[in-house]
Amino acid sequence: MKEFTKHHDGRGITVHPDYRGLGIASEFVKTRRQMINEQNIPMSCAWMTSYGSQKAAEKDNWETMFEIAPDELGEKCGLVFKDSPKSFKLMLVRKSSVRS
Fold first, then answer.
1. Quick check: is 49 in a domain?
2. Per-residue pLDDT tens for 2-27?
3. What distance in Å separates the CA atoms of residue 54 and residue 13, rounded to the nearest whole number?
4. Checking phi first, is residue 61 left (phi over 0); if not, alpha (psi -120 to 50) or beta?
5. Disulfide: which of 40, 47, 51, 52 matches 12 by Cβ 3.0-4.6 Å?
6. Cβ contact 48:89 at 8 Å
7. Cα(54)–Cα(91) distance, integer angstroms
8. In a domain, 46, yes or no
9. Domain extent for 13
């Protein structure tokens, strides 16, 4: 990603379990897209570590740049993940992919 001199990034998207299924993650990804378009930033990226955030980002045409299985990451870091999706995804959205 050397061609991007400016970008937004984040640790990911998290929605409290009591509020999942209400479209909050979808609004988060839409807001990230709106921010980069309004601020003339070429891209935004975030780790999507749940099915809900991955689905929301995919629905908004985010690209998967890197993917790793939780078991593989856990082995490298000495962690055990519970109830995780089959993979964690580093996803990005580009300013040029404006949705109507």
1. yes
2. 565 676 766 667 888 899 899 999 99
3. 9
4. left
5. 47
6. yes
7. 8
8. yes
9. 8-94
Cβ neighbors of 32 (< 8 A, separation 6 or more) are 8, 10, 44, 46, 93
**Which residues does 95 contact at the CB level (< 8 Å), separation at least 6?**
36, 37, 40, 41, 42, 43
Looking at the domain assignment, is residue 3 inside a domain?
no
Say if residues 88 and 50 touch (Cβ distance below 8 Å): no
Total tally of structural domains belonging to the chain: 1
CA distance to 4, 6, 62, per residue, from 52 (Å): 28, 27, 14
pLDDT digit string, tens, across residues 55-70: 999 999 999 999 999 9
In contact, 37 and 100? CB cutoff 8 Å: no
pTM attached to this predicted model = 0.79
Q: Which CATH number do you get for residue 13?
A: 3.40.630.30
> Where are the extended beta strands (E) located within 1-100?
8-10, 43-48, 63-68, 88-94
